[in-house]
């Protein structure tokens, strides 16, 4: 029995196979706010902007609207997995930026002493 895919069907997401003998690569998982999980196998010396762009393209998101966090700290696109000390199996959170904050002028200041 063969399986065929419709043109509109997405390819199944497969977890990359780990290569314990190759220390130059790391397998990471990107968790979306919607509960989605996308797996990547990246070279430790490649800038993470490549992963960020690929994730946003896969999820149909605009890169500028997403913040990527590793252990609660923001990741810059020019950083590498090596610089961040990432290990096989690390998880990156992809969160939507939240707008907010004043912007308006302060009209009244109250002090209750």
UniProtKB/TrEMBL annotation:
Record localization: Nucleus
Name of the gene encoding the protein in the UniProt record: LOC111455344
Region named Disordered: 1-25
Transmembrane spans: none
PROSITE patterns for this protein: UBIQUITIN_2 (PS50053)
Limits of the Ubiquitin-like domain: 24-101
Family: Belongs to the ubiquitin family. SUMO subfamily.
CDD domains linked to this entry: Ubl_Smt3_like (cd16116)
PANTHER family cross-referenced by the UniProt entry: SMALL UBIQUITIN-RELATED MODIFIER (PTHR10562)
Name recorded for this polypeptide: Small ubiquitin-related modifier
Keywords from the named record: Nucleus, Ubl conjugation pathway
SUPFAM superfamilies per the UniProt record, alphabetical: Ubiquitin-like (SSF54236)
GO CC entries: nucleus
């Amino acid at each position: 029995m063969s399986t065929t895919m419709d043109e509109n069907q997405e390819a199944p997401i497969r977890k990359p196979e780990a290569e314990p003998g190759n220390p130059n690569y790391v397998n990471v998982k990107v968790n979306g706010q919607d509960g989605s999980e996308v797996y990547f196998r990246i070279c430790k010396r490649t800038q993470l902007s490549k992963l960020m762009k690929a994730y946003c393209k896969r999820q149909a998101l605009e890169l500028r609207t997403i913040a990527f966090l590793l252990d609660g700290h923001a990741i810059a696109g020019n950083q590498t997995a090596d610089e961040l000390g990432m290990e096989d199996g690390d998880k990156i959170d992809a969160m939507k930026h939240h707008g907010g904050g004043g912007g308006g002028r302060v009209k009244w200041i109250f002090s209750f002493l």
